[in-house]
Design a protein that fits this description.
Blueprint lengths: L3 H22 L6 E5 L9 E4 L1
Antiparallel strand pairs: 1-2
Length: 50
């Protein structure tokens, strides 16, 4: 199967992160969390805006 699906997932995460940082720069968001686990036992790092 290879790692192609994994690499595509990272590409989408990078795009979401870039868009979130633009929102932060233009003051549409107050904060951006990147690659954070949101709760105990969370297996996937996430990107979140507030």
């Amino acid at each position: 199967m290879g790692l192609r699906p994994t690499h595509l997932g990272y590409a989408y995460q990078d795009l979401l992160t870039a868009l979130s940082l633009v929102n932060l720069a233009v003051r549409r968001a107050n904060s951006v969390l990147v690659d954070r686990k949101m709760f105990t036992g969370d297996r996937l790092p996430r990107t979140a805006t507030a």
